[in-house]
């Protein structure tokens, strides 16, 4: 019997006093994350979970850490567990996560509530409930969909540019396995001009996630923030309230843009997952595709540089990231698993330049047109839609791969727990006075075999 997990996100309406308490908790959790990261980076090795659990209890009693009292004990333990999980994801070759870094003050705040029993949800009316948050009281939450609170395993409070939100973590029941689909297989070509082109000729498009007025406002605010930051650095001053308000305005626009993108991807991935049993995508390395252009030194003039089209590459990178290719892959994968489907990935090389009829590399004349150059092909000289042709080639490769039994990636429910390997730790004089963490490296740690785990200072 397969079980999965699902998160539900709802808007929270705290009072001014509760908002101030939540902000103190969020900054305390951020400071604790930075404290743990500083100790880890200074020593450059992995230590066990139990050691940090004991150390967190010790510094809670230290008078030098008065801010630590603003953070509940369970939330403090979750900070370290999340930090450890971030390194686990970094060590996983199949996970795209990078090494954890310091959290700046204007980043998104988060407070974890690991125990579901602490929430105590109480219904106020048909739209609102109240949940109990340690050291903050009862928060008013607006429900826009039904939630089985008996399946809730925990929650997390986050604050973005549009306010506070509560995310319920739930454990779902047995995954349904329907067998009826609209079509057996479908290939999907992800692009920028056409976001999603399907091999059956269907295209999923969307308007700009920011309106024209919002885009102009965002550009004006970003330029204003750049001037404020330049003045701040020139005078070595602290961040002004005006600069913080500019950052908040930018964050609000960015979060509005992200919500619209997520809404489009959620609806599109749900429709595709319910209509097709085999979904084939390209195996894209989005991180490498969106790296900045490398400078080109001029060999004839030392100290000079050749044009590298950095501005055009930056614009392309922003367009790719704005489409959310990775988010779409993740969403369609878990939704296909819920509906009994499968998602596989194929080699992306020459998919947009291969004729689906003769399987010979042809000529993509423009962004929209593809023309086969094989004189013996029935499609010779005929211009066809390049995105649809690429999607059909992706589908062909996927069906061939599936028939051979070599499935690259299958969809399924995410695990409910993350295994944590044991680690021996020898701690010498690890006192919390002054926040000094003294640790000795563990020779058996995985960190010694992975260069990404070592600090770059």
Spatial order of the strands forming the largest sheet: 2-6-7-1-5-4-3
Q: Rounded to an integer, what's the Rg over CA atoms?
A: 26 Å
Number of helices: 9
> Would you report the number of β strands?
16
| pLDDT < 50 runs, ≥5 residues | 407-457
The assigned structural class equals alpha+beta
List SSEs in N-to-C order. EHHHEEEEEEEEEHHEHEEHHEEEH
Shape: globular
Percent of residues in helices comes to: 25-40%
β-strand amount: 15-25%
Give the biggest sheet: 7 strands, antiparallel
Distance between the termini: 48 Å
The overall pLDDT, averaged over residues, is 81
Structure description:
It is a single chain. This protein is of the alpha+beta class and 457 residues long. Helix content is 37%, strand content 19%. The protein is built from 9 helices and 16 strands. It has helices spanning 16-43, 49-60, 73-91, 212-235, 241-275, 286-289, 310-323, 325-338, 386-403, and strands spanning 3-13, 109-113, 122-123, 128-133, 137-142, 152-160, 163-174, 183-190, 196-198, 203-204, 276-282, 296-297, 305-306, 342-346, 369-371, 383-385. The protein has a 7-stranded antiparallel sheet with strand order 2-6-7-1-5-4-3. A 5-stranded mixed sheet has the order 10-9-8-11-14. The protein has a two-stranded antiparallel ribbon with strand order 12-13. The radius of gyration is 26 Å and the shape is globular. Residues 407-457 have low confidence and may be disordered.
């Amino acid at each position: 019997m397969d079980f999965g997990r699902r998160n539900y996100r709802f808007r929270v309406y705290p009072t001014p006093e509760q908002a101030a308490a939540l902000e103190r908790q969020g900054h305390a959790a951020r400071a604790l994350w930075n404290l743990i990261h500083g100790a880890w980076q200074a020593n450059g090795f992995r230590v066990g979970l139990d050691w940090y659990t004991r150390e967190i209890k010790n510094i809670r009693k230290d008078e030098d850490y008065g801010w630590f009292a603003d953070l509940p004990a369970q939330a403090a333990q979750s900070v370290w567990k999340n930090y450890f999980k971030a390194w686990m994801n970094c060590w996983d070759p199949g996970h795209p996560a990078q090494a954890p870094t310091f959290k700046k003050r204007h980043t998104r705040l988060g407070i974890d509530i690991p125990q579901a029993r602490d929430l105590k949800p109480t219904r106020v009316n048909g739209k609102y409930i109240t949940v109990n948050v340690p050291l903050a009281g009862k928060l008013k939450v607006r429900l826009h969909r039904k939630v089985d609170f008996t399946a809730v395993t925990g929650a997390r409070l986050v604050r973005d540019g549009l306010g506070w939100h509560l995310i319920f973590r739930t454990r779902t029941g047995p995954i349904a396995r329907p067998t009826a689909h609209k079509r057996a297989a479908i290939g999907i070509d992800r692009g920028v001009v056409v976001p999603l082109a399907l091999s059956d000729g269907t295209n999923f498009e969307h308007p700009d996630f920011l309106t024209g007025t919002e885009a102009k406002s965002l550009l004006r605010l970003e330029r204003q923030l750049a001037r404020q930051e330049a003045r701040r650095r020139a005078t070595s001053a602290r961040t002004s309230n005006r600069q913080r308000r500019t950052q908040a305005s930018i964050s609000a626009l960015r979060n509005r843009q992200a919500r619209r993108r997520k809404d489009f991807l959620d609806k599109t991935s749900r429709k595709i997952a319910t209509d097709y049993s085999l979904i084939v995508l390209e195996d894209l390395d989005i991180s490498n595709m969106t790296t900045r252009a490398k400078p080109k030194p001029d060999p004839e003039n030392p100290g000079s540089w050749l044009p590298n089209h950095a501005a055009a590459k930056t614009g392309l990178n922003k367009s790719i990231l704005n489409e959310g290719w990775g988010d779409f892959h993740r969403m369609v994968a878990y939704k296909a698993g819920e509906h009994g489907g499968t998602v596989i990935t194929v080699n992306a090389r020459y998919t947009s330049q291969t004729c689906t009829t003769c399987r010979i590399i042809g000529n993509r004349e423009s962004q929209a047109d593809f023309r086969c150059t094989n004189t013996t092909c029935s499609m010779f000289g005929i211009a066809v839609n390049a995105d649809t042709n690429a999607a059909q080639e992706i589908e062909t490769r996927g069906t061939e791969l599936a028939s051979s039994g070599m499935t690259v990636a299958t969809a399924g429910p995410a695990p409910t727990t993350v295994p944590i390997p044991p680690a021996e730790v020898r701690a010498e004089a690890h006192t919390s006075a002054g926040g000094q963490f003294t640790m000795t490296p563990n020779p058996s740690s995985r960190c010694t075999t992975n260069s990404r785990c070592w600090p770059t200072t």
